[in-house]
Amino acid sequence: MKKTISIILLTLLWSGMVYGQQLPGDSLAGDFKCLVNYLEETHPDPYSGFGGKVFFHKAAFEVGQRLKKGAGREEFATIAMAFMSKLEDGHTWISVPRGMAESELRLPFSARATPDGLMAVVVPEARRELLGSKVVSIGGVPIEELVEKVGQLRPVENVFGACHSLSSAIVMQRLMKLLIPGLGERVTVGLENARGEVVELTLDYLDTEAYAKYPTIKQPKWTAVNESEYMNYHFIDKERRAMLFRMSSIQSREQFLYLQQNSMPNMERMLDMFYTQTFKRERPSNLDEAIAAIPSLAETFRAMLEEMRYAGAPYLIIDLRDNRGGYTPIVRATLYQLYGDRYLETDMGVRFYTMASPLYMQKLGTTLEEINEAQGTSFQYGDYTFDEEEADTRSIEEKRRQFVEQIFGGDTSAIADLNGKPVYTPERVFVITNDGTFSAAFHYAFYLRKMGATVVGVPSSQAPNTFMEVTEFTLPYTGLKGSISNSAQVFLPADDPRAKVFYPDIMLSQDDYRKYGFDKYSDLLYLLEYLSCNF
To answer: What CATH superfamily classification does 102-218 receive?
Structure first.
């Protein structure tokens, strides 16, 4: 994304904003220097986004000088995020404190990304005719300019990542003030209606109580879709020809078995987060019981394929919308279940280049010395590991044996008896993505397409050629937490049109969304009609 406003100019815009208690400038500058060191030690390429190493340090110096004047924790985090935005890396970020949530002013309006831009999905009930309209401006600022500004304030990997962030920010006055300095408690949204006319909608940002009572009309949701579980499947048409498999997160029992077996740091914290944020139930106090209660992706997916085989269902639709990722290795068993040996013999063409760093070793719960001793290597911090691109000369029997033996999480029960044969391969496989599809969810969509699946929907906020992995850090003074990528991934040739934005094979137009009443599941309804299924 083109950057036209320098970090130092953006920080001047923030200087008049209230961010809570001011903290000593020297301490903040020290914390920022620590962040800069972490970036240099951990990130595969912290320099190119700035134009080189000299300009990376020039920008860091300017931010450090600004911080020496003092700032609040939220202002510090916002400035640090703007600095890291140059990397265009969605896995490299710092948490921004939210302050007093109960005093947050919210707008009774919301939008989501489509292939054509942002579409209104929540509008005042009195203006229900504007539902589905295209957002063309906010506060008098063209939407294209706001999308560009988002990319200067936080790390995003493509225009759809910026649209995803902007759609989240629109609702919160505090966030929109970063994009539109001087924004008051009233804002005008420009909307293009079905006749191509631009209509202005003027709304007030409301306190929590008023926002909860304000009458709005929301984007409808097709009730046939089961949203009750984070991982579920069911036939979506009356004739039982199309199976829908939905995952809101690429996480399952296999992941936690792996973390437990390898004594990974923060394992229990990640388990607690999964139960609270994704599984949405109380976690059993016993660790083994907590892990056993989580669904196995391989077991669930196999049961689904067996049900499809019994019904002779020709279509499988995998819904990965708003799936922010998790652990990519857990999906490999499902690809084997779908395609058998053909999956094992398919080169995905994907390469990962990882840099050794103290933070990465901390993440793995080991040391560089231990890795060198175990592998017979002589890596030093700052060295890269490069995927071997030599031809795989193993026999299919050996590939199969090693795949089963080394399956992620160690549970082979759902694949051991297949002997290279798929459980069931449908005639057509479809994957639905949107701007909320990210990280491991994007990987899954990419691998499925490599095996012949058709991708439908809105482009992912994840770029195929980008940086990857969550490597956590904590700053010593402010205590703010964040993440830095430790790998570079190359999924496509640099000159491929999809290297930055992975466009789906089928994308709906504004007229298509209108046809289905701007339903949340318009992509799915379109697909079923495309397949001539009775729904």
So the answer is: PDZ domain (2.30.42.10)
